[in-house]
Amino acid sequence: MPKLKRRHLIALPALASLAVLASCTPSNPQSTFDALGPVAESQLLLFQVIFWAGVVVFVIVMAALIYISVRYRAREGDGDPEQIHGHKGMEIGWSIAPAVVLLIVAPWTIYTIFANENSPLPPEEGGLVVEATGHQWWFEFRYKVQDRVSEEVVTANELHIPVGEPVNVDLVSKDVIHSFWVPKLAGKVDMVPNNDNGLWMQADEAGVYAGQCAEFCGVSHANMRFTVIAQPPDEFDAWLREQAAPAAEPTEATPLIRLGHDVFVTRFGRETPADEDVQGAGCNACHRIEGTSARGTSGPDLTHFASRATFAAGSMDNTAEYLRSWLHSPEEMKPGNVMSRDGEVFNSPTGLTEVQISALIAFLRSLE
Ligand code: HEC
Ligand SMILES: [Cu+2]
Questions:
Q1: In the chain, what are the domains?
Q2: pLDDT of 153-202, one tens digit each?
Q3: What pLDDT, in 10s, does the model give residues 41-98?
Q4: 281 pocket-lining for ligand 1 (C-beta < 6 Å)
Q5: What is the mean pLDDT of residues 303-314?
Q6: Are the beta carbons of 298 and 282 closer than 8 angstroms?
Q7: Measuring CA to CA, which residue among 227, 224, 228, 226 is closest to residue 334?
Q8: What is the pLDDT confidence band of residue 34, given thresholds at 50, 70 and 90?
Q9: C-alpha closest to that of 160 among 182, 183, 187, 175
Q10: In degrees rounded to 5, what are phi and psi of residue 283?
Q11: Interior angle at CA 66, CA 62 and CA 72, nearest 5
C-alpha cells in the first residue's frame, strides 16, 4: 500500500464534505430542498431560518476565536497571563446572546408545528383520507372514500393522490415502528403500533414522488420504499373507480391464466382443478384478490397488481422477468421478507416449479 502523506489526509475530509454536499442538490429524487407542496415548503423555510441563524452564530464565534488566538497568542518571554475570576459583563452577554437566537428560532418552530398540525381540509369537511399501514417491509394504503366511490380501495406501495388537494394520511403499523416520509411533500412522521398518528400533505404539481420508510425496522428496511403519484383530480377519480372494481376479467382468459388462478387459490400441495399434474401454491393464505376466493390479508392486496409500476415496496419494476425472479426466490430478491419466511411453498425443498411460476405470472399480469 502506498504511504498516506499528510496532504492526502487533509484531502480526505474535503472529499467527504463534497460527497455530503452533493446530496443537497434539489434534483435528487429525495431532496428536501425541492419542496413541491405547502407542508414541505413551510418545513424548508423553517430549516432555512434555523440554518442561517446557525451560520451567523458560526461566523461570529469563529471570527472571535481566530482573532483572539492571533491577537493574544503567547509570545517569547511571556509569563503566565493575568488570572481573572468572573466577568459580569461577559456573563450577561453570553446569557443574552443565546436567548436572542432562541427568540428567533423558537417562535418560528412553534408556528410551523402548529401550522402543519391541522389539515386545511380535514375528514369532517370532506377531505380525502388514506390510512397508511407500515408492514415489515412494505406499505399498505386504504382509501376511505364515501363520496367518490362506494367501495373501500386497498393498494400497496403506490399512493395515488389528487394534485392541489390536501390529503389526510392516518399512520398505523402492523408490527414495529416505521416512519412515513415523502421528502418533497412532507417531513417524516412515525407509524407506531397501537398509537394513532397522522399528517396531511399536498402536491402542487402532478408527478411521481419518492417515499421511503425513515425508521430502521429490520433487515429489509432499506427496501421499504413507496411512490406517491399525484394526478389531476379527474384522473385520480378515474383511477379510484377502477381500483374499487373487482379485477377486470382478462379479455382473453387463456388456459395459462386460468391455471395461474387455480395455483394461486388452491392450498399448497393439493392438485388444481385446472390440471391434476399441477399443484396449488396457497398464495391465497396471505393475498386478497377481489373477485376471486383469495381473501388473505397479511400480504399486499393484489386485486389490481398489474396496474402498479413496481412491486415489493419499490424493490423491483413490475415486469415478467422480475416477477419470475421474485417467485423463484423471494429471499434472494428481498432479504428477510415475510413471504419467503412464512410461505409454505417457499419453505418446501422444491419451491415453485417452472410451470407454476409461468402460470402465476400470466395470472398476475392479467390483474389490471
Ligand atoms: C406467508 C404469506 C404469503 C404467501 C403464502 C405468499 N405471499 Fe406474496 N407476499 C407476502 C408479503 C408479506 C409480501 C410483501 C413482501 C415485501 O414487499 O416485503 C408479498 C408480496 C408479493 C407480491 C408483490 C406485491 C406488491 O405489490 O408488492 C407478489 C406479486 C406476490 N407476493 C405473489 C405471491 C404469490 C404468487 C404467492 C404464491 C406462490 C404468494 N405471493 C404467497 C406474503 C405472502
Ligand atoms: Cu421501515
A1: 30-67+88-117 (no CATH), 123-244 (2.60.40.420), 255-364 (2.60.40.420)
A2: 899 999 999 999 999 999 999 999 999 999 999 989 999 999 989 999 99
A3: 999 999 999 999 999 999 999 999 999 999 999 888 888 888 888 899 989 998 999 9
A4: yes
A5: 94
A6: no
A7: 224
A8: confident
A9: 182
A10: -65, -25
A11: 140
Arithmetic mean of pLDDT, 192-214: 94
CA 173 to ligand 2 centroid distance, Å: 10
d(CA 359, CA 352): 11
Which of 138, 266, 287, 295 maximizes ligand 1 atoms within 8 Å of its Cβ, making it the mutation to test the pocket? 287
Question: Residue 306 carries which side chain, given as an amino acid letter?
Answer: A
Choose which residue among 339, 342, 347, 361 to substitute to test ligand 1 binding: the one with the highest number of ligand atoms within 8 A of its C-beta: 339
Q: Do residues 231 and 162 touch, judged by C-beta distance below 8 A?
A: yes
- Closest-CA residue, ligand 1 atom 42, reads 339
The CB-side HSE value for 59 (13 A sphere, CA atoms) comes to 6
299 lines ligand 1 (CB under 6 A): yes
**Beta strands 138-143 and 178-182, pairing class:** unpaired
> β-strands 158-162, 225-231: how paired?
parallel
What is the torsional sign of CA 225, 299, 261, 303? Answer: negative
d(C-alpha 26, C-alpha 264), whole Å: 44
- β-pairing verdict for 207-213 and 316-317: unpaired
pLDDT score of 165: 93
Among protein residues, the one whose CA lies closest to atom 11 of ligand 1:
299
Residue 288 CB neighbours (<10 A): 18
Q: Does the beta carbon of 162 sit less than 6 angstroms from any atom of ligand 1? A: no
User: Which residue, by CA, sits nearest to atom 17 of ligand 1?
Assistant: 312
Cell numbers found for residue 352: 415453485
Distance from residue 357's CA to the centre of ligand 1 (Å): 13
Closest ligand 1 atom, residue 283 Cα: 37
Q: What pLDDT shows up at residue 2?
A: 62
Task: Name residues whose C-beta falls within 8 Å of residue 67's C-beta, 6 or more positions apart in sequence.
Answer: none
